[in-house]
UniProtKB/TrEMBL annotation:
PANTHER family: AMINOALKYLPHOSPHONATE N-ACETYLTRANSFERASE-RELATED (PTHR43877:SF2), AMINOALKYLPHOSPHONATE N-ACETYLTRANSFERASE-RELATED-RELATED (PTHR43877). GO terms for cellular component: ribosome. Pfam families: Acetyltransf_1. Keywords: Acyltransferase, Ribonucleoprotein, Ribosomal protein, Transferase. It comes from Micromonospora marina. It comes from the Bacteria. This is Ribosomal protein S18 acetylase RimI.
Length: 168
């Protein structure tokens, strides 16, 4: 597996992988595919990933396996103005091709986020995860993340839950 910085040339593959991952985890949580994949959401995904890849403040990394995109990581300053970007980073997204779940791609991308905390001297990592995404919640819990008591509305009247990872 090779992990490298994402470029705009990766954009179509990132959006495609993100869509497959969304269908897998939202679908497992009971959302119909028609609510997960819409033209509007596809445009928003493409615009969001394009902005993240081009951003000076966000970092996007891709994991490649045998020349194919296997996973993507996006991280950067916290979205919440209540959190200090001098001490905190947000793990915005980790998505892995569902056909490669359980093969270490997510763990490798997560390790890059933890290394980012260390390299930048940051004390805290934060993220949000959809409450019904039990697979992701278990993954983050295994990697030391704990609920922080925050939430915001999400699809299907199911919130996104905040989690934090203290870093020594």
């Amino acid at each position: 597996m090779e992990v490298r910085e994402a470029g705009l040339g990766d954009l179509s593959r990132i959006v495609e992988l993100h869509s497959r991952a969304r269908v897998a985890y939202y679908g497992a949580g009971g959302l119909p595919v028609g609510e997960i994949l819409t033209p509007k959401l596809a445009r928003e995904q493409r615009e969001g990933w394009s902005a993240a890849v081009a951003s000076a403040h966000k970092r996007v990394r891709v994991a490649m396996v045998d020349g194919a995109l296997a996973g993507v990581l996006a991280m950067g300053p916290p979205h919440s103005s209540d959190l200090d970007p001098r001490t905190t980073a947000q793990l915005y997204q980790i998505h892995v091709d569902p056909e490669l779940w359980g093969r270490g791609v997510g763990g490798a991308l997560h390790a890059l986020f933890v290394r980012h905390l260390a390299d930048e001297g940051l004390a805290l990592g934060v993220l949000e995860v959809w409450e019904r995404n039990t697979r992701a919640r278990a993954f983050y819990t295994r990697h030391g993340w704990r609920p922080d008591g925050t939430s915001r509305p999400g699809p299907a009247q199911t919130p996104y839950l905040g989690m934090h990872l203290p870093h020594p």
